[in-house]
From TrEMBL:
Annotated coiled-coil segments of the chain: none
GO cellular component: chromosome; cytoplasm; nucleus
EC number: 5.6.2.4
GO molecular function: 3'-5' DNA helicase activity; ATP binding; four-way junction helicase activity; hydrolase activity; nucleic acid binding
UniProt name for this protein: ATP-dependent DNA helicase
Domain named Helicase C-terminal: residues: 235-394
Gene giving rise to this polypeptide: LOC100899635
Family designation: Belongs to the helicase family. RecQ subfamily.
UniProt-annotated location(s): Nucleus
Reactions catalysed: Couples ATP hydrolysis with the unwinding of duplex DNA by translocating in the 3'-5' direction; ATP + H2O = ADP + phosphate + H(+)
Keyword Nucleus: yes
Region entry Disordered, spans: 496-515, 671-812
Amino acid sequence: MSEKLRDVLKKSFGYENFRCDEQRKAAQEIYDGKRDVFVSMPTGAGKSLCFQLPCAADSAGVTVVVTPLLALMENQIIHARSFKIVTETINSTMSAVDKRRVRGDLMSMSPKTQLLYVTPEQIATEGFLEIARALDRLKLLKRFVVDEAHCVLEWGHDFRPDYMKLGRARTEFPQVPWAALTATASKKDEEGIIDALKLRNVFKIRTSSFRKNLFYDVYYRETLHGEEFAHLAGFISDALGKGWEDEKPEKRGCGIVYCRTRQDCHDVASELQKLGVTSGAYHAGLRPAERTEVQEGWMKGKYSTIAATISFGMGIDKATVRFVAHWSPSKSLKSFYQESGRAGRDGKPARCRVYYSLKDKRSISFLIQMEANKSKSERKKKHSEIAMKEFDSVVSMFEANSCRHKVLCSEFGDKIPECKTQCDSCTNPKDVDKRLGLFRAQQLSTTSYKFSQEDYDDLYGGGRKGGAGGVDGEEYGKSVRDKMEKEAKKELEKTIQQQFQLRKSGPGRASDPKSREIPIDCAIHEPKCNAIPEVSNQTRQAYALKLRKELWENYSTHSGRCLNAVSMERKFVNEVASELELETFKTKKNNIMYKREMVKLHKNLKSATQAGELFEELEKRRAADVRMKKENPSKKSIFDHIQDMKHSKNPIVIDSASSDDDDQVLIIDNDDNQSQGKFLSPAPGLDSPKDHPHQNESPPPTRSPPRDSDDEKTISIPEWKPSPTLQESKKPKVKYFFESTKPENEGTKKEVEESKPTTRLGSGFVTGLQLMKQKERDDEVSNERKLPTKRPPPEQATVSAKRKHLPAEADKKKLQKAAEIVNRLLYPEYKSNRISKEEFKSICRDVSHRMVSKGNFDEKTVKAEIRKSLLNRECI
Ligand SMILES: Nc1ncnc2c1ncn2[C@@H]1O[C@H](COP(=O)(O)OP(=O)(O)OP(=O)(O)O)[C@@H](O)[C@H]1O
């Protein structure tokens, strides 16, 4: 052992000894420079010293270090400078002045620079090669070092081809020795790296990757009953230990929680904060100043915990990291080893915990699978296959009860270590079994997971293909990163769309002629339009109806109308809903975009309603109405008609066509002037087919007088301000399936009868409707839309007529009994989505009435009646 090295170790680095004999040997070989060196040592083993020490010991010359990430480079430079090694870098983020300064020094006859950090992309530039040639001519190009050498294989093939070109520098400067160092290379990888870098006469040093000071365990997030953050906080408190706060901030223990998505970083940090754990979120989406604040805050002990994407990783060398938690599984075992390897770098005990999540597992698998599906070239296919296999290994490790260290060491082809006390599986296998059992049960009960946009945006921390090192926004060559991000984003989005289209449309669906059938009670415009073949009319109808309901809620909330004050305004709102749906259907390119847009509409609408604001589309149309009125004052606008009606003697404006809202459905006989004002009350919470619809009974609706007390003479556009009785009016009036004809309701009944003319399409109404429709409407569509609602089948009319004469109490009880039976027998149809909620209610109502009028409650007959109704959809 050269005395010189030992001397420098003490004087420059302040270390009494080498960490291990392998470290000493590696440093010596690199210093001697007689052959190339390959070093594989665990994370935190002190690999940097293996080349920093020779560099510090050199009497002259420059050591060029290739490193993958600028952040890593920064940390290394600070670290090396702390040992008084003259360290510089040339990279794309430097100012021209700095670059000139460094270049000037390197091109001089006796450069001061000892250690020069560059990216593989920099090495490939002519500018750098010129410097290297100049140094070489003076015999001052001492050695090339490739740090984190596993990146050569991981990234060289795809996004950073310059890694693969490093071998050229070897060819150009054949006499300059090379060294490659890594913590995560299996024996097979070792060969690959040596090959790619064209290393010769290689001296190999390999020590086991077993980190005996790290304790690994795995918990399953979905089995923590919503207490996962409290669980994490508990783990952090345990890992930091008692008396943690008594230490000086910079010497205190700390930890990292690795998250897959940027949103997760914020969620975890804020939840921990709430639980009293000082924490900050870190990811590439933050502004540089914010990132620095969080990183420094963590380094200096302000935050005990940093919730970060994997962009916070490789360069982090903080001795007092007492824990690393994974909030999501890593994409490979190597990545997991690297990331968890940030813990316990001072050699003291540290904890590594995985909070495994089914949701993340599924989304990662799905995205890898998609990448695989879209791969066209053989090479890409192979890579995708490898990615899939690597993730499968992660899944196997976390979904099994076997020694965690054993799995990791096997991954690198190392000797199986004697773990005994360093993982959950070795210390408490029964507990692991228990947790796994719960997890498996959970897995069986959770069959699907909806992917959010964030899943696509943030695969592996937003970096895409970032791999172990995490490239979440790191600068390792701007052009490369830009290219990588653009390409990945474009391709991934395309594939996602294709995949979803394939899944949604299924075989034959797009061309299914039924999908263009005109829905009963058609709420859509241009039902024959085939703008997006895979979106059926049923789907369109469902969206349009939902939109109607929400628009009406918005309108009535804003204008202070009660929810069942319908007709003109209701028609107007429905019209807007249909227009919006059609616009979306015609302008969006495909199923996904259509649905996304509809969801967006619903969201915006909801927020507007919550804020008490009129939805912008309604506002637009109102403005158009104002404009039209200004241009042509003699014409009555829809709002004029509304005003007229409010001041008319017959203000009650109940209309069967408007009975699409979910809170109440008016049962109305469609034969002339037979309005009975009966309501079918849907089951509370009947929003999804999962809820069982059932009817309630209570007194019939009492109708409020018109709310607005506008000046009689006013015929201008009504005020669109929320009424003071907003809260009240927001509450849906309770309506009942079976109207009671108790004496106290006589008044109401009378009112209803008085209002009969307005339930038909009276002259005012027709004008208003024409007015609304003048902007659009082709005749064909208009006719199509009217078709199903026009006239009820004769049988229904008869039933209704009979129904009218039933004594109230008997009617009520019999109908109740009938409805129970029909409900029960019809419900499976609804649950399995074969009929809509409207259809369910309608069939239920009519069959019940038919049974009562026939006096037959026999289930067979009911079934037959239901079948008949289903076949004919006669009662809608
Ligand atoms: N001989 C030594 N004596 C004491 N401390 C040492 C010695 N060698 C290295 N260290 C310290 O060990 C820590 C880890 O070293 P280093 O960052 O080089 O690890 P590494 O092997 O590169 O890890 P990783 O692969 O995870 O980046 C550093 O803080 C370093 O100062």
